[in-house]
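Quality-control log, excerpt.
Job 1 of 2 completed; input and output follow.
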Amino acid sequence: MTAPDGTVVIVFAKSPRSGAAKTRLVPLLGEEGAAALHAKLVKRTLETMRAASLGRVELHCAPGTDDPFFRFCAGHFGVTLQPQVAGDLGARMFSAFESALATHAFVLLLGSDCPALTAHHLRQAERTLRDGADAVLVPCEDGGYALIGLRRAEPRLFDGIAWSSENVMAETRARLTALGWRWRELETLWDVDRPEDYVRLMDSGLLESSSVATGIR
């Protein structure tokens, strides 16, 4: 049996349906505006993955892969589409890691809410795993994380976490310590969830500096 080799990058994304994406920004942007912003953030994330050139990129789609936006992403960015499994975010993340690590030595998993994440961060995360770390994370200012990379799947990193809370990163640190793993945290970044984050995004010029206007939405 051939040993797993190489790196796969997994991006989690919801379908950019009106009323179902970026709901905390609906009071500011409206349902259509929030969904359109989500689509732009997904495209920027995939653009960053392509620039990093780490290997295979999978877009894990919720609730499924049938949305025309996801099909556009597959064609335009050359990513492979996978449906997310049932369950909470932790269950879906663990399933994605378990499957990918059966065929790849290193897996990086991220969402699409952190436009400050660059190709340099991706390469740095992969290099950390190649240098022997069991895990690597990019913390977020709100107490979560924008990226987690692993070289082995472990359900205890994901079970019973209060996702979308300010304690996600702290709880993950505690679990990594309990496991006795070697891990590294990279630069702390910021993501886009709340109205004040949207203002920061507009001031940053990050969306304008990319080609996210291309294609659907």
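Job 2 of 2 completed; input and output follow.
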Amino acid sequence: MTIIDTALHDSLRALKLSGMLQTLDARLTQAHAGDLGHLEFLQVLCEDEISRRQSVSLAKRLRRARFEQQATLEGFDLAASPKLPAAQIRDLAALRWLHAGESIVLYGPVGVGKSHVAQALGHLAIRQGADGRFAKTSRALADLAGGHADRTWPRRLAELTRPDVLILDDFAMRELTAGQADDLYELISERAQHGRSLITTSNRSPVDWYALFPNPVVAESLLDRMINTSHQVFMNGPSYRPNKRPGRTGSTTNQTTK
């Protein structure tokens, strides 16, 4: 490496242009061979840097999302059962609901793939530049409850409000306490106020959620907002889990397919 090359490498590092640094030698070889003109050489180096930054940003957003699995719609067998609402799921993949700040309710029996589809839609939104977060509903509520004890509740609420899309898995599993219902009301209200989307998965039909709230007034106010303005997807059919075997399209081990 020449003194000039060393200085150039140091300058690229100082400018945090490691995408250029990683491909510089290959691009120089192309330029010396006459495959790239001066402007083309600069353009492809800039594209290399943009590509690196996009990849790093995507990886960071995926880590922040805390998905249980890196599920994708490409890895979900929509032909596994004729009862699956394939057309509705494909329509949701267009992400119009995300841009409109709308929500999604995925409900149906255990094992049909609700969690997979929810995380896959979140994964797709993140690939399009959105921020996402996945959490079991019970854990999200426990986290908010802990904020009351140590006076960090506003910060914890803000962390769940901030993402463009929040996925609450296993929603409406059991009856809520008054405190849980109030926290959930605040969370849903804050997200709605900022026009941010919510995806919930549940083994219960939305009409059965009301009885789980100790205060019917809170239930009406909260659930009417959640249910009446959401895309409701009823997922039915045989369990998807037995179909997740080696050699089958999209199969992985230990996948959650609620």
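Post-run check on job 2. The two ends are 56 Å apart (CA to CA).
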